[in-house]
Design brief:
By secondary structure, this protein is mostly helical. It has helices at residues 29-53, 59-63, 70-86, 89-112, 118-131, 134-137, 145-160, 178-191, 199-219, 222-242, 247-271, 281-292. Among the domains are: 29-141, Helix Hairpins (Orthogonal Bundle), CATH 1.10.287; 199-242; 249-292. Helix 8 (178-191) packs across helix 10 (222-242) and helix 11 packs across helix 12.
Length: 295
């Protein structure tokens, strides 16, 4: 859902409190000017959301709840991902704005309920970023990105370790796409020291799971077949991790290619006055190979 800005007239806003930085990395003057401008813009946005949710605001905005906005948040997230995939900066700019609108919407609702404000969210985020970047904001040394990732995972595990029933793997949403969730879980386990020595062992695990799947299929045990397919998929995702490939991304690209090639095949058939119903599998295979040469 794209943001709709009403004619609100002039907004009398207080300036955002000045941000203090560590002495280790002092920002340049131009950066501070940009931060001030951004802060003013953010204040205007939060005030705008308050106006939209106010007594004289928009009826639709006032009716929304955290739950009712879930589908919009998901929609905007996927639209942003699509814009990133498309590589269009202007589209990304618009979709980032729409996603920010959703975030501010939730902050406004929470503020009205006395739970937290947008400012508190920003403060918590700032503190977390500083806490998890000791190599930037203190004298702690982390030599490369791999060391940084390992530190992050261990720091999160330590932070969450005091919570009842918590795991060092942390929490990943169950609603998260399964391939992406599997890869993130594998990464966290690896940074905590639980992993194969290298890609060869990941390959061997795929062969092992494939053999177990064949055995399950022969047994005609449907539940076991499902479990073995899941194990095989998880093993393939682990291999993707070793090969530095995002499983979710490459599968999405494969699905898009399949859809495009299928549409190409249908288009070529229509050009010849035919449909899939009256086309042999051999002819479809031929058109499919033709489509593959186009992508």
């Amino acid at each position: 859902m794209s943001s709709t800005f009403h004619d609100l007239g002039p907004l009398n806003l207080k300036p955002m409190p000045r941000i203090t930085y560590s002495k280790k990395r002092e920002p340049q003057e131009d950066t501070m000017k940009k931060a001030t401008t951004t802060g003013e813009g953010f204040n205007e946005l939060t005030a705008l959301m308050g106006r939209l949710r106010g007594e004289q605001g928009c009826p639709w905005d006032r009716e929304q709840t955290h739950a009712s906005l879930k589908s919009f948040l998901l929609e905007e997230t996927y639209e942003l991902l699509e814009a990133i995939e498309g590589g269009d900066p202007k589209e990304m700019e618009e979709e980032l704005g729409d996603l920010l609108h959703q975030i501010l919407f939730h902050c406004q609702i929470a503020s009205e309920q006395g739970h937290f404000s947008a400012e508190q969210v920003i403060t918590s985020l700032k503190e977390k970023l500083i806490r998890r970047h000791p190599h930037v904001f203190s004298d702690h040394s982390l030599p490369d990105s791999e060391a940084v990732l390992q530190y992050w995972v261990k720091a999160k595990a330590k932070e969450k370790g005091t919570e009842k029933g918590s795991s060092s793997l942390g929490k990943l949403p169950l609603a998260m796409p399964a391939l992406a969730r599997a890869q993130r879980i594998g990464e966290r386990a690896s940074h905590l020291g639980f992993d194969w020595p290298g890609p060869k062992q990941a390959w061997d695990k795929i062969e092992e799971e494939l053999s177990e799947l064949k055995s399950a299929v022969s047994s005609e045990n449907h539940a076991r077949v499902g479990e073995e397919i899941g194990d095989l998929l998880f093993s393939v995702v682990n291999l993707c991790r070793f090969l530095k490939v995002e499983a979710e991304t490459v599968l999405a690209q494969t699905v898009s290619r399949f859809v495009w090639r299928f549409a190409y095949m249908e288009s070529r058939l229509r050009e010849n006055g035919k449909s899939l119903a009256d086309t042999s599998l051999e002819e479809m295979d031929s058109l499919w190979e033709e489509a593959k040469k186009q992508t």
